[in-house]
Fold this protein.
Amino acid sequence: MSPDAGLLLTMSGVDGVSAIANTPIGDAEVNVDAVQSLVGAVVTQQGGDLSIDFTDSGNFLRGVLSINQEAGNMNQQANIRAIAAADAVGGVGLVTIDINTVQELRGNTLTLIDPGASEVSIQNSFNNGTGIVGINQTAGNMNQQLTVVAIGIGLNVGPDAIQMGDAQLGQIGTSQDNSKTLQGPEATGNNTLADSFNDFTGIAQISQVTGDLNRVTQVIGVSVTTMGAP
């Protein structure tokens, strides 16, 4: 896809969304609505170590990469990337970003019987890379992980260009709304991020969870205007 403005966008992965528009009014609008809901689930885990690792990968990356890794049960993970670009043809450019996220975690029952250790790690990865990277890792149970990047680009805008942004992040449910029962000694957890993202340029979102019934949201909104096309 190559619009008249000369901007080329390539999005990969089921979580990626892109939109390109070339309009006389030059409006670039990015709307992201993301909902994760886990209600009334039941999980029983007995014994066993849980581990996830990402090693010697993604070095010299160029582009967009989204990774979800989980070794537990009933986890919800998503990486969402939305990009919109519009050519104002020298007129008034308007770039609008609107992000709404909701994570609902309630009424769930988790029973751990003699659980083993849990570990997540990223090692020697994504060095000398350029782009947008989102990684969700969990070695636990019933976790919700969400990363969002929304980018609005206004090309050939006039001096009166307008940039607007809004984000609403919601979480439903507290620790008292879910039941967790431990039978036996409590397991140990370990998160590792080592020798990675050296000389990396761009946006990197990393979520690492070794426990249970956690909610993690990372949201980045970026608006860019330029008085000339690239």
Observations:
- The CA atoms of residues 2 and 23 lie 14 Å apart.
- DSSP finds no helices and 16 strands in the chain.
